[in-house]
TrEMBL record:
The keyword Transport does not apply. Keywords: Metal-binding, Zinc, Zinc-finger. The keyword RNA-binding does not apply. One of its GO terms (molecular function) is zinc ion binding. SUPFAM superfamilies: DnaK suppressor protein DksA, alpha-hairpin domain, Glucocorticoid receptor-like (DNA-binding domain). Residues 40-68 are annotated as: Disordered. The lineage of its organism: Bacteria, Bacillati, Actinomycetota, Actinomycetes, Micrococcales. It comes from Cryobacterium arcticum. A zinc finger (dksA C4-type) spans 101-125. Residues 96-128 form the Zinc finger DksA/TraR C4-type domain. This is DnaK suppressor protein.
């Protein structure tokens, strides 16, 4: 007889949001550092490769450098995607939608957010999509 109108609990309290914002900013700083290192090594490969091209069209090092390039470019792309996901999560903290599944709007859950602060989907939707 008391409170038949259960107010939906706020998914995350302001303290929770501050906690996850802190996690995201920390992760963001790590990724930016990693990205800066990757950028530097990409420049190294680029310099090495253009040097090889200028010296000899049949440089036996060519394929190796290309492989190295692909590998590093792939890592670079992953870091960029991860960084964008973090920025999107920080934007959702600002606009109040953080912590709810982008697909169906249900709470993502603190445990999942603790493990993956940039998660956009609840665990069920994430499983369905993979
Ligand atoms: Zn969902």
């Amino acid at each position: 007889m008391s409170a038949p109108d259960r107010h939906p609990e706020p998914v995350l309290s302001p303290a929770d949001l501050a906690h996850f914002a802190g996690l995201l900013r920390q992760r963001r700083a790590e990724l930016e550092g990693e990205l800066a290192r990757q950028g530097a090594s990409l420049a190294d490969v680029r310099a090495a490769r253009s040097g090889a091209d200028a010296d000899d069209e049949h440089d036996p090092e060519g394929p190796t450098l290309s492989d190295e390039w692909s590998l590093r470019a792939g890592v670079h792309a992953e870091l960029t995607v991860a960084l964008a996901a973090i920025d999107a999560a920080l934007a959702r903290i600002d606009d109040g939608s953080y912590g709810t599944c982008l697909r169906r709007g249900e709470p993502i859950g603190r445990e999942r957010l603790q493990a993956r602060p940039a998660a956009e989907l609840c665990i069920d939707c994430a499983r369905e999509q993979s």
